[in-house]
Amino acid sequence: MKELSQTALLVLASLIPDPLHGYGIKKEVARLSQGKVDMTIGTLYEHINRLLRLGHIERAGEGRAYGGRVRKYYMITSVGMQDCETHLQLLEERLTQLKARLPRPVEARREVRHGSG
To answer: C-alpha 43: how far from its chain's center?
Structure first.
């Protein structure tokens, strides 16, 4: 299993539970990341194409946008859902390991007080 980037995970998560078109994915990723991830259209389609190649997402049909432009819709596959869950579990494990390395907040405050006084 190849590790997915945070942005790729957000793209996958944006497609849970419903299919979205490219611009819808872009808006949902921004919402899920609380505005911290604002992809360009080029970056968005790099992620979409990579996730299509990996079998994590698939085309879910087309629709017409205002003005008659065709919008392609994408949905997460069962492989994508499983890989998303696996990656989130790995991130949780890493976060737990990193938190364990940090001093507890009370101990940290005591050390600062003793060191400065």
So the answer is: 13
Q: What is the CA radius of gyration of the chain?
A: 20
Q: What is the CATH number of the domain that holds 98?
A: 1.10.10.10
Q: What is the dihedral of CA 87, 92, 94, 99, to 10 degrees?
A: 160
Assess if residue 68 is contained within a domain: yes
Q: Which residue segment(s) compose the domain that 77 sits in?
A: 6-116
Q: Which two tokens stand for residue 104?
A: 């507890």
Tally of domains within the chain? 1
The predicted-structure confidence for 15-36, as pLDDT tens digits, reads as follows 998 999 999 999 999 999 999 9
Q: How far apart are CA 81 and CA 74, in angstroms?
A: 13
Taking the model in full, what pTM does it have? 0.78
Q: How many helices (H) and strands (E) does the chain have?
A: 5, 3
Determine contact, residues 35/25, Cβ cutoff 8 Å: no
